[in-house]
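All the exercises in this workshop are built on plain-text protein records. A record pairs a protein's sequence with a compact description of its fold. Backbone structure tokens are a discrete shorthand for how the chain folds in space. Once this layout is familiar, the rest of the handout is easier to follow. As an example, a complete record with its sequence and its structure tokens follows.
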Amino acid sequence: MKKIFAVILALTLLAGFAGCSGNDEKTIKVGASPTPHAEILRAIQPILEKEGYTLEIKEFTDYVVPNNAVSGKDLDANYFQHLPYLQSFNEKFKTDLVSAGAIHFEPLGIYPGKVASIDALPDGGTIAVPNDPSNEARALNLLEKQGLIKLKEGVGLAATPKDITENPKNIKFFEVEAAQVPLSLVDVDLAVVNGNYALSAGIVETVLASESSDSEGAAEFANIVAVRPGDENKPKIKALIAALQSEECRKFIEEKYGVGVVPVF
């Protein structure tokens, strides 16, 4: 009887583990920044529900914990960063996370400060730009597209103010941390603001010009879904990417965020 009981108990436990495994494969745990990432994920929950998946969203306000949570298997994926940041994180923290797919791009835009248009920028005017290397380079490329400056040929996303070869309006640049750029609008003539910070500041509708979806910045800095290596081939991750790259998701992004968030699929 003891042997029979042990066998029954073992089979019960195995059945329980199998059930948990099955449920786990139908639950997708994703970490995300509140805006716009978590909002976009909530928009696709009904799509995944129709496929039999439960999407659990965990919001983060920092850029380190969500990557560690995926690496440590507390999350299946995260959605908050672009590939250059992920690659830098992997190198710094000895992780090996990979991209499962690119979803959207948060373009930099030129916003009015003390002047209402780009044409109204006075000689010697001041433009606020993000002070980190990648965003400052993007800002300078955008200003070049608008004919305000000229950069060294081929400098691309490595551009710095030292690479400006022509500055006909004698523009002065106010370099400030990206999140603080919107706060500088009252003190400068124009400002180049990241899309997510423009959304948070409620100024997206006032944009004068922005990076296009086919720009070098869009290709390089599209926001991705990050997962552990090999997990990009799991059915539930493929379902997540398919939902994020669906026409329903595209419509949601375009209608809710306008030029502040641009789909790249």
